[in-house]
TrEMBL record:
Identification of the protein by name: Phytoene synthase
Pfam families cross-referenced by the UniProt entry: SQS_PSY
InterPro entries according to UniProt: Isoprenoid_synthase_dom_sf, Squ/phyt_synthse
Length: 248
């Protein structure tokens, strides 16, 4: 994976948990996962790279156009598009939705109700997990449910920072937080019930982050969760590596 070293370095800095997920996955899937996760990190960064929503929208549109163009053939040389093409080929055109979903971030608009957050979670972290699971040989109801639950949990974990950026809830009251926590808990339960349908090789890409239950418990009480310590984060990844238990 020496040709992916620059992307691995970026993930080590910007998304270390997903880098760990990629490295724990089967070797045959790693180049796909590293490039996918690097794309996701770049899309998230791009959407917030300008204070002016119009400028941010233009930058997101550039990625939409580039990903759509994968359906037509090899992209021009690029530090991320080239390895993405090498790993995914024309299939990468199916990642256009990941870029489209970031238009919301570029616009810097808060969500008016919890259902909008669920739809956003499905289109971003949920869709990302589906693509990652497919690369690792898994799909189906467990993957769909785990993707929603993990994405909602990540959003709740990040909500205080998102709120400061204008990307949180228009009315961040306790009822809205409880509704989101309940949605995530229901999705986790669906994924857990269907866990036997998921091949063991796909376990790493279904990781929901450190202490997901604590995040949901805090939200159900109408408060923000404490960020996990580095020790707790590493312990969660070690547990995943040793046991293969991805469900919550």
């Amino acid at each position: 994976m020496s040709d992916l070293a620059p992307l691995i370095d970026r993930l080590r800095r910007d998304d270390p948990d997903r880098l760990a997920m990629a490295l724990l996955a089967p070797a045959a899937a790693r180049s796909r996962l590293v490039t996918l996760y690097a794309l996701n990190a770049e899309l998230a960064r791009t959407a917030l790279s300008a204070r002016d929503p119009m400028v941010a929208e233009i930058r997101v549109q550039w990625w939409v156009d580039r990903l759509q163009a994968f359906a037509d053939g090899t992209p021009p040389p690029h530090e991320l598009l080239t390895p993405l093409w090498a790993a995914w080929g024309p299939e990468a055109a199916g990642m256009t939705g990941l870029a489209e979903a970031r238009r919301h971030d570029a616009a810097r608009k808060p969500f008016t109700d919890p259902l909008e957050v669920v739809a956003y979670a499905d289109a971003t972290g949920g869709a990302l997990m589906q693509l990652a699971a497919r690369a690792a040989g898994a799909e189906g109801p467990a993957v769909l449910a785990q993707g929603r639950a993990a994405a909602l949990t990540a959003w709740l974990r990040a909500r205080p920072a998102l709120q400061a950026l204008g990307l949180g809830l228009a009315r961040p009251d306790a009822a809205a937080l409880r509704a989101l926590a309940d949605s995530a808990a229901r999705a986790f339960a669906v994924a857990r019930a269907a866990r036997r349908e998921v091949p063991a090789a796909a376990a790493p890409v279904l990781f929901a982050g450190a202490a997901p239950r604590a995040v949901l418990a805090a939200a159900q009480e109408g408060r923000d969760p404490a960020p996990p310590s580095e020790f707790r984060r590493r312990a969660a990844l070690l547990r995943l590596a040793l046991t293969g238990q991805w469900w919550v």
